[in-house]
Amino acid sequence: MSKKWVYLFDEVEQAEKDVGGGWENVRGLLGGKGANLLEMVRIGVPVPPGFTVSTEACNAYLDSGETFPEGLKEQILEALKNVEESTGKKFGDKKNPLLISCRSGGKFSMPGMMDTVLNIGLNDETAAGLLKLTGDERFLYDSYRRLVQMFGSVVMGAPDDDFEEVITKARLKAGVETDTQLTADDWKDVTKKFKAIFRHYAKRDFPTDPYEQLNLATEAVFKSWNGKRAVDYRNAAGIPHDLGTAVSIQTMVFGNMGNDSATGVALTRNGTNGENRIEGDYLTNAQGEDVVAGIRLTDEISKLKTEMPAAYKEFEQFSKMLEKHYRDMQDVEFTIEKGKFWMLQTRDGKRTAQAAVRIAIEMVEEGLISREEAVLRVSPEQVDLFLHPQFDQEAIKAAKASGDMLATGINVSPGAAFGVIALDADLAEKWANEEGKDVIMVRPETKPDDVHGMLASQGILTCRGGRTSHAALVARQFGKPAVVGVSDLEINMSEREIRVKGRVFAEGEWVSIDGTEGILYAGKLDTMVPDIKDPYLMELLTWADEFRRLGVWANADYPVDAERALEYGAEGIGLCRTEHMFFETDRMPHVQQMIMTDSPTERREALDALLPFQREDFIGLFRVMDKKSVIIRLIDPPLNEFLPLQVDLIQELADLKFRLRDAGTLEDTNRLLDQIEEKRQILKRVESLHESNPMLGLRGVRLAIHIPELTAMQVRAVIEAACIVTKEGVEAHPEIMIPLTSHVNELKSQRDVLEVVAKKVIEEQGIDVHYKLGTMIELPRAALIADQIAEYAEFFSFGTNDLTQTVFGISRDDAESSFLIEYMEKGILTENPFAVLDREGVGELMRIGVQKGRSVRPDLECGICGEHAGNPESIQICHELELSYVSCAPFQIPLARLAAAHAALRDKNK
Ligand code: ADP
Ligand code: MG
Ligand code: MG
After folding, report:
1. Which of 229, 523, 259 lies closest to 401, judged by CA?
2. pLDDT grade, residue 293 (50/70/90)?
3. Has 576 been annotated as catalytic?
4. Strand 245-251 relative to strand 262-267: parallel, antiparallel, unpaired?
């Protein structure tokens, strides 16, 4: 007996058995569309009878040089007989002909594959029979012309436009606006013209033998798997080439049998906002493709409720059934034939981030899924989307309807962007930076020379490349929406224009790209920014909080940031960078004075002047963070950062000298001389502070040891602030953090300074405040001797930015826009280690640090305050390392809460 290639729609159990179980495997065998057709039959949703030819048959066909494998033909005929029996119709019969559709569909849906052919089985003779049966000549010729049209374009490769042109002309001639208004005679005439087009392109007559039609269509579906567009798409999207496509062959039901017939597509819930109501489009008296193609004006589903209430009721019932079975929102295709409802396709529906959240919440309320599942169904990346502009769904709909949805490609960097087309990097940069234009940079592919243009652009679009192309990597790196590998896009550099599906756009014209979905639109689409404080999201996050083990803290320097962080759910401040406070204009003069002077008294004066400012800053933070920890990091950057740049000083000196030459009065001369002297002093100081590698120079704890008064002032400000708010009834939990420790003696010396000051302040204030002393672990040595450090430090905070720099020996500022991109393109690194924590190197040091630290101090609080704390994959690692918390930017807190819950749930479900 030959292998089983064909599965009747009621043979889903057999298919399961043959693949050894597992829904993924069934989908692999029968394609997503096919598998779901069989599944719908199993659960009792009305599906027109049919059968699915497996992907294995496709592969066998392609592997054997395009011949049907043994037994396939026989099995198809056998299955067809079975369908004839259950429908009471006969394929090719002159009296009561069975018509079928031939539908493609692999495991993953992908653009570029062959479309569907409807109405197979029609020829002049069966048409006559069908006419007698239905008495509906208009229906008949509408169906017939569709077969010739689809067969011509899909199977034989005749251009769609030629066919559409005939229809447009027919409408004009008849003086009508829509296809529905065309009469039987009009369609009869159209059919004749279509046959002529067919002959012209296929170099043969339209095949009249229904079996030949079916064979040709099936083979065409098989071959379309290796079509250029399909192959390009798979290459770019990373889909394996050996999956093959299935072919579903199915009894036709007719949405074009009059005004009690219709066809449509719908989501079982609103895909934009998640509302639990069917949302979609349909057409009365029409057939399938019309709605999907978006070439005819459709009605909203809500109208169906009043137009065909009985069918709508069935629709609702079957939607619920599908949702209950698949436990998710479905995207369905349906047809109503003379009032009878048929489901033709179902799959999990696409949705915006907002809809995903609301649907997850409501499905829990409806008892469809558990809270755990709801939390797992929303990805941290989707939460991130709440923060970025997206295209307005109405705008997308309108673009689709008017044919402005131009092409699809690979969605490599999420977000919506619009701009004018710029075809090279220099022009993109010029338009964006000098003329303030929004630019979309369009290139065949990008190279390192293009980076400046990409940075200036709102978004990036390329014809070639996939997920790891240069364009994709750079776009993700800098958060620019990008769509790459748009194979329908042609760039004509000599004409400075692009061409997509027959439309031409000159450089400077508007386009829009959706990097989340991978779609290119013509024109400028409206955008909207969702509300991160969406009530459904807030609810989902409170569920996430029940599951997560990691704390979620925020990096915040100012009280307003802390307030925002609290609103988003922060449980502490993991990093307050005190030097940010120094940069404010009213403080800079004191900071500079402190740096410039060699006299201890003058330095003390400067520091005394800074003290009240710092104290106020901390008071503000403590008040906001009542009862919660606030980690205050003592000054970190090298002093040079507080002084003017050397080049600027030299320039200013030159200017002053120039003015001195022309000075009129003695008074002017003296004033200028004073100014010159002052600048000279600053320049001298800047030069003396100059370092070749400031990142590895006099900064962090080294600076504090160099100028102990600085530590003393900062500690005083912290403790005084804590005492003051304590008197107000606020519960302050200051944690003082020393940056850049590498040797335990550094910490020891700092602790000595700190304890003296703290003790003194506490005595002065007459209030006992509790504070902690801890350190950043951001140098490899610190991690390696964490046990020694833990003798003095009551908490650790992993500064993974510096730790990554020092572990790799890579200077981030220099590397990120240059060789790191090359490294990723060449596959040397799979991720940017500054974006995703390097598990093996940095992660391993963290593991050692945590383990050694806790060996001395079991309750040691260990957190992370580097940028990785806002990255889901890195949060997963932090969870595994059993850190106490992650501390990220306030706006990343929702994402971090969810990612931490995902990590915990994954752990639990392992
Ligand atoms: P696609 O993958 O492009 O959506 P489908 O195979 O789903 O292709 O077919 C597109 C449309 O054709 C369907 O949505 C449906 O409206 C129509 N169609 C397909 N098969 C049938 C059928 N047997 N009876 C009626 N309409 C059909
Ligand atoms: Mg479909
Ligand atoms: Mg650091």
Report:
1. 523
2. low
3. no
4. unpaired
CB atoms < 10 A from the CB of 678, how many?
A: 12
Q: What average pLDDT does this structure show over 474-495?
A: 91
State which amino acid sits at residue 684: K
Taking the C-alpha atoms of 23, 27, 30 and 34 in order, what is their torsion angle to the nearest 10 degrees? Answer: 100
Residue 518 near residue 511 (C-beta atoms within 8 A): no
Q: Does 333 contact ligand 1 (Cβ within 6 A)? A: yes
Order of strands, edge to edge, in the sheet holding 100-106?
Answer: 6-8, 50-53, 245-251, 100-106, 117-120
Distance of alpha carbon 265 from alpha carbon 292, whole angstroms: 7
∠ Cα 384 239 215 (to 5°) = 130
Q: Which of 388, 470, 868, 879 is catalytic?
A: 470
Query: At which residue do the structure tokens 């004009």 appear?
Result: 172
Of 799, 705, 794, 779, the C-alpha closest to 746 is: 705
The pLDDT value recorded for residue 296 is 63
Mutate to test the pocket of ligand 1, among 333, 334, 347 (most ligand atoms within 8 A of CB): 333
Dihedrals φ, ψ of 520, to 5°? -110, 130
User: Dihedral sign, CA of 369, 373, 377, 378?
Assistant: positive
pLDDT of 292 higher than 80: no
pTM of this prediction?
0.88
- Other beta carbons within 10 angstroms of residue 259's beta carbon come to 11
Neighbours of 498 (CB within 10 A): 25
Please give the distance, rounded to the nearest whole angstrom, from the Cα atom of residue 62 to the centre of ligand 2: 24
Would you say 41 and 10 are in contact if contact means Cβ atoms under 8 Å apart?
yes
Separation of CA 769 and ligand 3 centre (Å) = 28
Residue 151 structure tokens = 């067969």
User: How far is 183 from 561, CA to CA, in rounded Å?
Assistant: 67
Q: Which of 259, 257, 263 is nearest to 138 (CA)?
A: 257
Neighbours of ion ligand 2 (CB under 5 A): 333, 345
Q: Is 241 a catalytic residue?
A: no
Task: Kindly provide the b/e burial profile for residues 568-589, where b requires at least 16 CB atoms within 10 angstroms of the residue's own CB.
Answer: bbbbbbbbbbbbebbeeeebee
> How many Å apart are CA 807 and CA 809, to the nearest integer?
6
How far apart are the C-alpha atoms of 57 and 69, rounded to whole Å? 7
Helix and strand numbers (H, E) in the chain are 39, 33
At position 780, the amino acid (one-letter code) is P
Whether 797 has a pLDDT exceeding 70, the answer reads yes
- Regarding the beta carbon of 46 and ligand 1, being less than 6 Å apart is answered no
Give the CA radius of gyration of the chain: 35
